[in-house]
């Protein structure tokens, strides 16, 4: 027998599952359009390090761009399931994710930034993903995808 409690539990479970983002492999992601690639988009892989960044797909945070920052500079604005390639000098860099601004709900967490550091060598390629988790917010994490 189907009860109200069972239906409510099922709907809640489906709703929470819809709020999670899912990793996207770089070969399946769309490139960030040129008008949202703002810095570090040009370089020579032989003389720089390469950061390959992919944003997860999914509903949570999906209505707003996520800003990807390199050394405090906004490098790109990512939509869901997009990827960007960034060329940086060898050495240590601070990379981060945050709200690049916008209107309406996209401006609620203005000033939000979550950062981490990475060290990259000349000719090295490092992969990262931009993810959003319920209750934890957005983050930039190393990836093998």
* Count of helical regions: 1
Number of strands: 11
The helicity comes to 10-25%
Strand order of the largest sheet: 2-7-3-10-11
Mean pLDDT: 83
Give the overall silhouette: globular
**Class of secondary structure makeup:** mainly beta
Which secondary structure elements does this structure contain, and how are they paired or packed?
Blueprint: H1 4-18, E1 21-22, E2 30-31, E3 49-55, E4 57-58, E5 66-70, E6 73-78, E7 82-88, E8 91-98, E9 113-120, E10 125-133, E11 137-142
Parallel strand pairs: 2-7, 3-10
Antiparallel strand pairs: 1-4, 3-7, 5-6, 5-8, 8-9, 10-11
What does this structure look like?
28% of the residues are buried. Mean pLDDT is 83; it is low at 6-18. Strand 5 (66-70) and strand 6 (73-78) form a beta hairpin. A five-stranded mixed beta sheet has the order 2-7-3-10-11, with no helix packed on it. Strands 6-5-8-9 form a four-stranded antiparallel beta sheet, with no helix packed on it. The protein contains one helix and eleven strands. The protein is mainly beta and 145 residues long. Helices cover 10% and strands 43% of the residues. It is globular and about 40 Å long. The chain has one helix at residues 4-18; strands at residues 21-22, 30-31, 49-55, 57-58, 66-70, 73-78, 82-88, 91-98, 113-120, 125-133, 137-142.
Keyword list:
single chain, 145 residues, mainly beta, five-stranded mixed beta sheet, four-stranded antiparallel beta sheet, 11 strands
């Amino acid at each position: 027998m189907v009860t109200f409690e069972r239906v409510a539990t099922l709907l809640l479970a489906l709703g929470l599952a819809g709020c999670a983002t899912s990793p996207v492999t770089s070969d399946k992601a769309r490139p960030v359009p040129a008008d949202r690639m703002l810095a570090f988009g040009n370089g020579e892989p032989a003389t720089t390090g390469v950061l390959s960044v992919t944003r997860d797909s999914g509903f949570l945070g999906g209505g707003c761009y996520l800003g990807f920052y390199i050394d405090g500079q906004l490098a790109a604005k990512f939509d869901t399931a997009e990827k960007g390639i960034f060329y940086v000098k060898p050495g240590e860099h601070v990379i981060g994710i945050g709200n690049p601004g916008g209107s309406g709900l996209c401006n609620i967490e203005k000033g939000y930034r979550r950062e981490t550091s990475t060290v990259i060598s000349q000719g090295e390629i490092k992969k990262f993903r931009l993810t959003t988790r319920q209750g934890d917010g957005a983050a930039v994490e190393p990836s093998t995808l």
